[in-house]
Amino acid sequence: MSMKRILVIATGGTIASTGQQGQLAPTRTAQELLRQVPLLDGLCDIDYVQLMNIDSTNMRPHNWLDIAGTIQAKYSDYDGFVVLHGTDTMAYTAAALSYFIQDVEKPIVLTGSQQPMDHPFTDAKINTYHSVLYACDPAAAGVVIVFSGQVICGTRAHKQRTMSFNAFTSMNYPILAVFRNNKLIRNVHSLTQTSNVVSAENQNIAAEKTDEPRFYRQLDGRVIVLKLTPGLDPSIFELLKRDYRAIVLETFGVGGIPEHDGASYERAIFDWVDSGRTLVITTQVDEEGLDLGVYEVGRAYAHHPGILRAGDMSVESVVAKTMWILGQSSSSEERAELFYRVINHDRSDVE
């Protein structure tokens, strides 16, 4: 049996960083990084491309398209892809790739590290090795993050810790697999799922499965996350109109939006969406998701046209998906159809 061919796409991040005037900055190349990872020789045939070398804080939506475009250009030449990436925005990139590359039957793995590859106690070597090992697995497919011995769905990852090696958690969805003694052990749940699972009554909004992946090249980055805080003036919606087409509104609890002292959030929100813009309502609570029907302070927004409900999606996925749908659609109906489509397990409550 021939060895798998894996392409490593290096983008920078902590994993590639060295000390520069007392501060870390990405300087190591893909070749230099791979040379320091034990056991890769003989595991597979590895090629690499140095796509960029930036701190992931500087990762922007057009960089997501560059990564997706590189995978598209090389897709037929390789069995899997490993993206070396900084941790701070890795969850956003993983979510974005899930929307820009759909129905993918090959693994697209993102990884990085909390300490640089040159650090004496780095986690970079094991994370890179596990990522390549996962990319070589014959059953591996789709966009995932491999980090600290865990395989996390690309639309469900969230950076929970700033310094610990177990930096990422899976939001409202089971871990897909773990590594134990460098052996991949899959979660039974992940073996029974497909990338576009929907309930029977909602099959009309599922993407049709194709034999080839679908690549998308359009997005609209005019999306902002607005977090409700006590006393926030709803006039902010008017101020945001000039620069943004969509707001991701992080509400209180399961969907609470205040209405008091003549400060009319309802009027401001309805005016926002009635002007042709998009509002996605989510919760600022990390776990268990949104339900606008529970309290009176959220019920008014449950079914107004132009208002989308994020359910149990991560905020990273909500942001990336909203940018994606704005790039594909021109009407609120089309945007709703795309937003509620289940892609790479991004939501478990199809509306």
TrEMBL record:
One of its GO terms (molecular function) is asparaginase activity. Keywords: Hydrolase. The keyword Hydrolase applies. GO terms for biological process: amino acid metabolic process. Substrate binds at residues 56, 87-88. PANTHER family: 60 KDA LYSOPHOSPHOLIPASE, L-ASPARAGINASE. This is asparaginase. It comes from Atopobium deltae.
